Amino acid sequence: MSISAMGFSYCISLQVRHPDADPDDIIHEIGLPVRRSSKMGEPRSTLRGAPLPGHYDMTFCVFDLGVGADGELADHLRSRIATLIPKREFLHELRATGGSLNLFITWTVGERGEVFDCTLLSDLVSLGIDLGIEPISAD
Fold first, then answer.
1. What is residue 38's three-state secondary structure?
2. How many other β-carbons are positioned within 10 Å of the β-carbon of residue 17?
3. For 59-68, how does the pLDDT look when each residue is reduced to its tens digit (9 = 90+)?
4. Is-contact 29 61, C-beta < 8 A?
5. For residues 109 and 4, is the Cβ–Cβ distance under 8 A?
6. Span 25-56, pLDDT tens digits
7. Residues with Cβ within 8 Å of residue 57, at least 6 apart in sequence
8. Rounded to whole angstroms, how far apart are CA atoms 74 and 83?
9. Please, which residues bridge with residue 60 across strands?
10. Helices and strands in the chain, H and E counts
11. pTM of the complete model
């Protein structure tokens, strides 16, 4: 089924940044598929592993939370956020020690939008997770 028939497609990730946490600890505690991680102080590299100048100035982890072309982004978010609620204490500790958490959505614009109800937004707030959305034209 095409994107226009369903409304839109999306890709969701959770991005965690911290001044000095061990990415292996973050990955273990969050327990979701990790797309990329780097540790503060390690040499920088491209996504394919080629060296870049300098060193990482903070720890960074990106977790895949899923993709879809079903136009049901809010429902997908609810289910993924539900898996993070039991990890609330760990997520709060990350923020309290200088970290940041961002739920990042790449959204291919289609024929309709989406509503993030107050319950979903409240769950994000209770976890200390910021929301970022990047719309992309379907053309």
1. strand
2. 19
3. 999 999 999 8
4. no
5. no
6. 999 999 999 999 999 999 898 888 888 999 99
7. 40
8. 15
9. 17, 38
10. 5, 7
11. 0.85
Summarised one tens digit per residue, pLDDT across range 4-24 is 445 678 999 999 999 999 999
**Cβ burial 30-68 (10 Å sphere, 16+ → b, else e):** bebebeebbbbeeeeeeeeeeeeeeebebbbbbbebeee
CA distances from 94 to 26, 56, 122 (A): 9, 18, 19
CA 41 to each of CA 25, 35, 59, 100: distance values in angstroms, whole numbers, following the listed order: 16, 19, 8, 18
Quote the pLDDT of residue 139: 64
**Amino acid, res. 28:** H
